[in-house]
């Protein structure tokens, strides 16, 4: 029996499909490798700093429609973008007419769906861009509403999606375009993933079609060792494990939607983050594990550093807290009652801190602290605001001595005051809390100490 040749599923992000020139580069990338037979596009993204994403314009159309206001002027900007793309790609008059009809149907659909949530409107950017990309590639285009199935709880129905996609792939010929970001429930109602969700479609499609690799094409050469807006030209990460990625992306290194990890991880499919503007760069490979023998010699001891502002620490001190059975549990039960989830709970002999994100305690902090005072009767209770958390992450850290000393030494030398320390139990991660005003200096100092050396 002939072996099925390996399949690569290639997802292209909005910045990679923002205009005709950008789309042409994506078409060249797909054509450069015959394994790239299934393509998942986002909607056209920003062409420059303050340009709107087509998806944002579509949400705006929905908001107008919902309030009974005219939205033709906003929709005209979307038409203009797609007309420019179609003309710039020389897709011809017949396709321009087809695209025009699809735009008319989208505009009418947004009006019809007003009052039924924004998902239909938001999905049209990917639906229309799918038509464009399929035409440019000579591939078939699926309607994602027919192949990406949502369960009742709004999550992906992986089993049904697998069946539907395999059917569509079987009858598609040369190649298939599956628009990202949306699908439909069993009743046919269009649903979207959360923002950035074309990554999730790409992962679902790769898992359903047993792809050998899921390529995620974006505007950076893979996951970088630090946020490029904070550190000047950070190195890109060659290989990262799913666990490291989870730690880094939770703290803001967001090249991949967090939900996109699960379908491919479960299927053991590696994810390759690549740069459309630098296609020769190998990018970052996300894998389950890196065997010790395959670690590149001379690799930096950390995989990356990421962080976020906007945290508050509530510190409780009580003599003999260490002997008071259930003290920690009572603290956390107060949080639970207020519907607050916590990030970290670093503790000492007679002290315990709870670190929460500001968004979690917005409007609840005073009542929460009152209850902690009354029910836990601490000797002292302090609320520390304006905290930034920084995670220094790396699988190689476990086996290298002196990591904490290097980290704290670098922060000390940069004049950064450390207000909290927590080492994740996975030993993959050391988290420090610093003043928000020290955030950038701290990230740069950590990067310099571990990567530049
Ligand atoms: N550690 C990091 N590595 C790479 N990119 C990062 C990191 N931290 C933040 N970013 C930002 O994430 C952006 C890419 O993600 P995203 O907006 O989802 O792209 P796309 O439109 O291709 O889906 C980059 O432009 C970069 O500014
Ligand atoms: N277009 C959608 C989905 C998406 O994934 O877009 P991008 O690949 O540009 O992040 C959004 O803006 O949320």
Tag the structure with descriptive keywords.
single chain; about 450 residues; alpha/beta; Carbamate kinase; VC0802-like; 2 domains; eight-stranded mixed sheet; five-stranded antiparallel sheet; 15 helices; about 40% helix; about 20% strand; globular; binds adenosine-5'-diphosphate; binds aspartyl phosphate
Characterise this structure.
This protein folds into two domains: about 10-220 and about 255-270, Carbamate kinase (3-Layer(aba) Sandwich); about 305-450, VC0802-like (2-Layer Sandwich). The chain has 15 helices and 16 strands. It has helices at about 20-30, 55-65, 70-90, 90-110, 120-135, 145, 160-170, 200-210, 240-250, 260-265, 325-335, 360, 365-375, 405-415, 440-450, and strands at about 10, 35-40, 140, 150, 175, 180-185, 190, 215-220, 240, 270-275, 285, 305-315, 350-355, 380-395, 420-425, 430-435. The strands form three sheets. An eight-stranded mixed β-sheet has the order 3-5-2-1-8-10-11-9, with helices on both faces. The chain has a five-stranded antiparallel β-sheet with strand order 13-12-14-16-15. Bound molecules: adenosine-5'-diphosphate and aspartyl phosphate (PHD). Adenosine-5'-diphosphate (ADP) binds near residues 253 and 255.
